[in-house]
Design a protein that fits this description.
Rossmann fold; 2 domains; 6-stranded antiparallel β-sheet; 31% helix; globular
Length: 309
């Protein structure tokens, strides 16, 4: 069997904290079964993807957060297309590890790798879950958002210090602002945009935000995308134009994967999403932030197998 490539993001939270020690630890755990690669640029990552395609590697292990996962699968899908990429082993190790919640991966990267290698060595087999991706401007991801979603992310990233305490602080602020000061809060800055789902225009162009994904978890126990259909191409979209106080009133329902009825709240499984805004806007792909020049098209991407060990 070909060696399993482990793509390490040297700039992820855990890898920076350990000052590069993760690379040596992965090598020590994996021995002759793994090929550890630390990539600092997209060009380096693309070269690794081409090499893995030539060698027909059995799995693709990724050490980093959701942003790293998004960058790696984008390069591998480009290199492998139209063939499927190898089953992906998420070793977490980033600030945000929401996609891994879908396959219920427990522990950190070292323990996940040990379980994978143990399953291979004993011939137990490895379970996988299939999830479609979303394709946006030539990149691929599992979670997308704009409006309220990017406003919250900007607040989390502000000052450069991230982590669970900062995320909790922003969530508490968002809940309080939604009830007591929605008009003046930067978190609830609204967007004017024409939104089209599967070719059908939404009746309202005054929105609070859009969230879409092919995985359920978005962090901190929130599973608003719980109606993802793994066997059907497409993704779950929530686009809402309700007032912040209405959203706050239903936040626990949404967190548990439920929904609520309101003429300005749209909740659907779609194959494509088209946004035309009156001004440039930010959007996120698996936690990474990008800018769109007034128009953006989100479509269903290829399916990817996520390893569960």
């Amino acid at each position: 069997m070909e060696k399993i490539p482990i793509i390490v993001n040297p700039f992820s939270r855990k890898n920076i904290k350990k000052k590069g020690a993760s690379i040596d630890i992965f090598k020590r755990i994996g021995g002759e079964m793994v090929d550890v690669r630390s990539t600092e640029t997209i060009e380096e990552l693309a070269a690794v993807a081409e090499d893995c395609k030539e060698r027909t590697v059995p799995y693709l292990a990724i050490s980093g957060g959701d942003g790293t996962l998004h960058q790696v699968i984008s390069c591998f899908i480009d290199a492998y297309g139209p063939a499927p990429i190898p089953p992906v082993v998420i070793l977490k190790d980033g600030t945000m590890n929401n996609v891994s919640g879908t396959v219920k991966l427990k522990g950190g990267g070292y323990s996940i790798l040990k379980r994978l290698l143990g399953a291979i060595e004993t011939g137990r087999g490895v379970d996988t879950l299939t999830r479609y991706t979303m394709k946006i401007e030539g990149r691929y991801c599992f979670l997308f958002g704009t409006g309220l979603t990017t406003n919250v992310l900007n607040a989390v990233y502000e000052g450069g210090k991230k982590g669970i305490p900062k995320v909790l602080k922003v969530i508490i602020k968002a809940f309080g602002d939604g009830i007591f000061r929605p008009e003046s809060s930067s978190l609830y800055r609204r967007m004017k945009a024409k939104v089209c789902l599967n070719g059908e225009d939404l009746p309202s162009d005054d929105l609070l935000g859009i969230l879409a994904g092919t995985v359920q978890d978005v962090g901190m126990g929130f599973r608003p995308l719980n109606r993802v259909m793994p066997d059907e191409p497409g993704f779950h979209v929530i686009a809402t134009g309700v007032k912040p106080v209405v959203l706050a009133r239903h936040i626990l329902t949404l967190a548990r994967g439920g929904s609520f009825k309101h003429p300005l709240h749209y909740d659907r499984h779609v194959r494509n999403l088209h946004i035309i805004s009156d001004r440039p806007f930010e959007y996120t792909m698996d936690g990474d932030l990008y800018s769109a020049d007034r128009e953006l098209y989100v479509e269903t991407g290829p399916a990817v197998k996520l390893v569960s060990v």
